[in-house]
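Note to self: the last two entries modelled the partners one at a time, which told us nothing about the interface. This time every component goes in together.
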Amino acid sequence: MLDGTFENPTKIFFGKGFENDIGKEIVKYSKNVLLHFGSGSIKKNGLYNRILKSLNDYDIKFTELGGVQSNPKTNLIYEGIQICKSKNIDFVLAIGGGSVIDSAKAIAIGVPYDGDFYDFFEGKENPQKAIKIGTILTISGSGSESISGAVISDLEKGTKLSYGNPLMFPVFSVMNPELTFTVPKHLTSAGIVDSISHILERYFSNTLYTECTDRMSEGIIRTLMKYGLKIMECPMDYDIRSEIMWASKIAHDNSLGFGKKQDWSCHTISHEIAAKYDFIHGNILAVIIPAWMKFVYQKNNFKFVELGKNVFELDIDIYENGKEVGEIVIRKFKEYFKNIGMPTCLRDLGNVNKDDFCEIAKKCSNTTLSGTIGNYVRLTEENIITILEASY
Amino acid sequence: MLDGTFENPTKIFFGKGFENDIGKEIVKYSKNVLLHFGSGSIKKNGLYNRILKSLNDYDIKFTELGGVQSNPKTNLIYEGIQICKSKNIDFVLAIGGGSVIDSAKAIAIGVPYDGDFYDFFEGKENPQKAIKIGTILTISGSGSESISGAVISDLEKGTKLSYGNPLMFPVFSVMNPELTFTVPKHLTSAGIVDSISHILERYFSNTLYTECTDRMSEGIIRTLMKYGLKIMECPMDYDIRSEIMWASKIAHDNSLGFGKKQDWSCHTISHEIAAKYDFIHGNILAVIIPAWMKFVYQKNNFKFVELGKNVFELDIDIYENGKEVGEIVIRKFKEYFKNIGMPTCLRDLGNVNKDDFCEIAKKCSNTTLSGTIGNYVRLTEENIITILEASY
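The predicted structure of the combined assembly is written out below.
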């Protein structure tokens, strides 16, 4: 294990109905909040009214800002920051999935800052203060409900950048599996893939003596794969939604990454694809992960062997070598993603131009000083192009 | 999964050398601290001087209170509270294992309280305030470094009582595996057993849909069992100590118990044995766990089957029934505890009088309103006596 600091102060309210008394928790921090959400489905399904009633019970003033899109954009965040500044709002309640929560985090660090909040994401400045945020999670997968990071896109600049700071931990997150009952199949699956990838990005590591974490990781991958299939048949099953919701939180709260040199190649590549085409994050990952695996397993197969043994229960002794196990593991993931209705190649996602691959690879390389990405196997621009072509 | 609230705000510094700059972290909270520790071995091995140097670097005043014993006692805690009150001390730095940390937690809630701090443990009052505590862990196993609970014995009353409150979370814990290099074999093993039992007490549950947590639990049991054996041969191996230290933290920080109705029979029985005989906690558990298992597996074997499959890699299909698997699982645990040098029966621990079993069982029953303990299988006084006899 590597040396490091671990903290995760977000308080979780898991289960039914916590959102109905949300004012009780918010009032500890603020009496003047921004309600931040997405398309407005929360107004149709009654959640919005239940929240309003509770805010009213505790005399909490609010201003609303809906309209967060997937791959949340800077323009709405600028608007949110402006609203908070002009109305002295000191708390953002994010009601939604990862996009809404990430957007809220960006607003939270932007409000006390005189410059452009995107400075933080571009690595020019570090925030010294933030207003508080709380979340009511309505889509599992992003893990944003209990991490300190966010990913924000700027359409004009064509960038999708991530940034994290302990100031951005939500002070609380409400996780009620019932609120995810109506998430459509394709977004449920995209969340499953995102969660699995949050584990794999940490699991694929060359750091030794991380068995405690690796064994936990394998257990959660197994759970996510099992219930990710089951939820396709029973989208309103509370218990299945619970398993997925909790597993998705653990997948990304860094319990599974602490003490390890992590990889994050697939996320880096996926972010640059999203910056170019604005596709759904989990969908991109579903095609990039197998392509990435196919590229790296021949260079470094020890984690593939562990996955084979501990996730897919392969009797690894009967195989000739680790590469053979690697091929089976890759096939298993590919089949699984297909079985939960995910796209199998980049073209399935929309209009992708192969001529863009060089630019995408270059932008990936630009995210690091060394010009290579990943750690399990370090990838050059050329390698990234190979992966993109394999995923096409 | 059951509804519930999860929080764990303790900040962890894991790895080498953090203790050398401990003043930097403490000064965020206090400039006047109580140094709380055990037998004074920290003075011999140089740790104490390194801490003092850092306190000096940040102009932090200190008063020392050593002498914490295993099964920490009320009398030293009264003394600690008195010192803090008279010197306006508002921070306790616990340097040691679970006993020292638990003692520090009790002092922390006792200082701002006008009455007897043991009121909290006896269920008469709840603390409204506490002074802060931080820890430098020198023995793995208790998990006290990142939980909000403590267990305190009162010799005169003959009680060993546990109490937990979010006010008692350490604000930080330094976990440097090097500091555990010199822990003697028998205490290292006692810590391993304690950690395994922290997982089992949560694992043995009838709550359904806890697979995410169960799979993680099995992974950590496997890791602890593996490295618990290895450390016997290589006590100064940093990597092995790391795995044990991190696994012991996860084992008890409630990551593995959230959303479940937990059991805790073995701890309840062990605490009452300790209250009577003052034996080492982990040693008692090593004989109580197999005796408890032997009693319950015939009544409810489903978790034994899961352990058999996922921890001991049994091909459970070849066994006639779950009971057969249960017997193997029990034998495996018994053998394992023996292999790491643990006692195999109560008599090994010291002078135990079988005539005391009725009294011990009665005191166990008195810890609950219903008069029965445990949840996986509920135990009457009579059942507890049966278990005690089996462990004798």
